[in-house]
Amino acid sequence: MQMQFSAIKPRLTFWQLWNMSFGFFGIQFGFALQNSNSSRIFSTLGASPDDLPWFWLAAPVTGLMVQPIIGYLSDNTWHPTWGRRRPFFFAGALLATLAMFLMPNSTAIWMAVFALWIMDASINVAMEPFRAFVGDKLNPAQQTSGFAMQTFFIGCGSVIASLLPSMFDWAGFSNVAVNGSIPETVRYSFYVGGVAFMGAVMWTVLTTDEIAPADLPKFRAERASNGGLATAIKEILAGFGKMPLTMRQLAAVQFFSWSALFVMWVNTTNAIAANAFGTTDAQSDAFQSAGNWVGVMFAVYNGVSALAAFILPVIARKTNRKVLHMICLIIGGLSLASIMFIHTKELLLLPMIGVGIAWASILTVPYAILAGSLPAEKMGYYMGVFNFFVVIPQIIAGLILGPITIKFLGGHAVNALALGGACMVIGGLCTLFVKDDAAAAS
User: Fold this and answer.
1) Rounded to 5 degrees, what are φ and ψ at 13?
2) In the chain, N or C: fewer CB atoms in 10 Å?
3) Does residue 130 belong to any structural domain of this protein?
4) Which residues pair with 5 in a beta bridge?
């Protein structure tokens, strides 16, 4: 079934862009706390560093299953009050908030992995329709700005969320893992993050309307006779063979970019603990301090991305989106690789500036290029399929990263970061081969 929505898309004001994107501020509390603390939680519960990539697999595998289904369902949903995407915003936020209260109270590794799975699935339910939301509501001339606004809120939410453990530490909460339990600083950070997630998403739900189907009676009739689940699965599978050329070309860029990010998220805590804090003991005070410092580092790269989000559209309009993305990824890759040479914690903030530039571009430019090549009636579905190229590299990295680190990188997590940097540089070079027909409209 193909649902046609009204093609009339008036130019939105700054504050309308702000309201429709504000939910990402909360969503990123979930992702940032997950990215900067999952390895710390697993290690505190007794996980071996070599096994961490396996435990992280729960997140990308979940995304692989959830994203195209949610994209398809949101394309084919309309409620007179809730609209098209907002029902999924609300449901995902509610489930993610519950999972964020559960994860830091895990008492065994399997519990933490299960909580990560639930949390990531729920975040994807809320997040995936947000990407399609830009295509729904904005004309091509505003789409880069729309994705940039999302990137701004991603950066802002990530800065605060990443700093929360350090803030609670400074406020006097315990940062010690007593008898293998998760420190208070981490637990309360997840509690605050859950509340922020729900509140920010509800802001968007309550302040933003949606464009109704152009022929609502026809849409309702088609939805009533579409054949149910079997038809949905058939259409989802059929769409893989009809991906636009631009989408297929961007796949290589995404593969190397997100492989690098996965390596960074999995290995940074252990790498910094060993390289700058002189410990590999996950139960030690030094390791927990390293975990807090990783939060500060991640806050820096997300803060940079929030600022860069407003600069990238300006540069893209004056130059070339492909060249811009290539330069940003090369800067980020070299910065990530440089961490292996830094042994002073304060100096570790410098490479995060370069990583932040790359992160801003990763969250903005590929989606802006893609949106111009997609059919409007399948925007959500194809955005979901596009995220296959986000999760598949993470799954592959999760399966092979541990053995590669042991056999070829001396078992050192910091060497894995250098490998991630090389992947990001390769992703940048792949950008040159992407066709960007809508560049003039950015």
Assistant:
1) -80, 170
2) N
3) yes
4) 213
φ/ψ region of 227 (left if φ > 0, alpha if ψ in -120 to 50, else beta) reads left
Question: pTM for the whole thing?
Answer: 0.72
Asked if residue 417 is part of any domain, the answer here is yes
DSSP string across 311-364: HHHHHHHHS-HHHHHHHHHHHHHHHHHGGGG--STGGGHHHHHHHHHHHHHHHH
Tokens of 235: 């259409």
Q: Is residue 6 part of a domain?
A: no
Total number of domains constituting the chain: 1
What domain range includes position 283?
17-211+236-441
Query: Are 68 and 385 within 8 A, CB to CB?
Result: yes
Which residue in the block uniquely carries the two structure tokens 């996965």? 262
346 in a structural domain: yes
**Alpha-carbon torsion (309, 311, 316, 317), positive or negative:** positive
Return per-residue pLDDT of the chain as tens, 442 residues. 444 444 567 888 889 999 999 998 999 899 889 988 998 999 899 888 878 888 888 777 777 777 777 877 887 788 888 888 899 999 999 999 999 999 999 999 999 988 988 898 898 888 878 877 877 888 777 877 888 888 888 888 988 998 999 999 999 999 988 777 899 999 999 999 999 999 999 999 999 888 777 767 777 666 666 655 566 667 666 666 778 888 889 999 999 999 999 999 999 999 999 999 999 898 899 999 999 999 999 999 988 988 887 788 788 777 788 999 999 999 999 999 999 999 999 999 999 999 999 999 998 889 888 877 777 667 767 777 787 788 888 889 888 988 999 889 988 999 999 999 999 999 999 999 998 865 544 4
